[in-house]
């Protein structure tokens, strides 16, 4: 028999519990190449303390992980990031950030399971590192938006040029984003929700 008082029994923190008004919870994934800002986005926008699996980069990654352009990076996600945000009183998003290095891509399939949509973060200095993320989403039929993350001294290109470089159809929304900023990250997630809603809007047939 457990003689502990209710105060002594560990449970979820009050700030981690879902609001009573929540009517729908949606799983979304934040994807992209190595070092594009996925962990930063989850951390900046999550209303609960985010779960991260960042580890210090070691000699094991030398010659395996491409750190060109992000030489100052010292930690990397080895499994996933997790956070949560309530977009309004009724809609809650569960956020799953994927690892970026190719050697951890085997984890992506599990993270994609049940996801209704995705945000693809890109870094214009290293656009090619997010090509595989887009390809995997297209293969699985997961709707997504592309967010151009703001990095200091990153080259500035028009959305039309970036869309052409990534071979994206006009139907895929592309927006600017600063993953460090909560409001900007939230606006990116709202853009994804609007995109998902537009895909599920049925246009009445004309008689």
Automatic annotation (TrEMBL):
One of its GO terms (molecular function) is GTP binding. Pfam families: ATP_bind_1 (PF03029). It comes from the Bacteria. SUPFAM superfamilies: P-loop containing nucleoside triphosphate hydrolases. Keywords: GTP-binding, Hydrolase, Nucleotide-binding, Receptor. Belongs to the GPN-loop GTPase family. This is ATP/GTP-binding protein. It comes from Streptomyces iranensis.
């Amino acid at each position: 028999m457990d003689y502990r008082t209710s105060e002594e029994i560990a449970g979820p923190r009050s700030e981690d519990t879902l609001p009573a008004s929540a009517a729908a919870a949606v799983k979304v994934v934040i994807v992209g190449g190595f070092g594009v800002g996925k962990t930063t986005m989850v951390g900046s926008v999550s209303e609960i303390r985010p779960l991260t699996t960042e580890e210090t980069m070691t000699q094991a990654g030398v010659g395996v992980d491409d750190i060109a352009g992000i030489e100052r990076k010292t930690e990397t996600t080895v499994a996933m990031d997790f956070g949560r945000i309530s977009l309004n009183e009724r809609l809650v998003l569960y956020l799953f950030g994927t690892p970026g290095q190719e050697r951890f891509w085997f984890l992506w399939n599990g993270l994609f399971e049940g996801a209704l949509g995705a945000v693809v973060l890109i870094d214009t200095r290293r656009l090619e590192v997010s090509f595989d993320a887009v390809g995997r989403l297209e293969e699985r039929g997961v709707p997504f938006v592309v967010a151009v993350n703001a990095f200091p001294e990153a080259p500035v290109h028009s959305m039309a040029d970036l869309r052409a470089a990534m071979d994206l159809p006009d139907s895929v929304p592309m927006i600017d984003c600063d993953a460090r900023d909560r409001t900007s990250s939230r606006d990116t997630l709202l853009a994804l929700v609007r995109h998902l809603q537009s895909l599920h809007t049925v246009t009445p047939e004309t008689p």
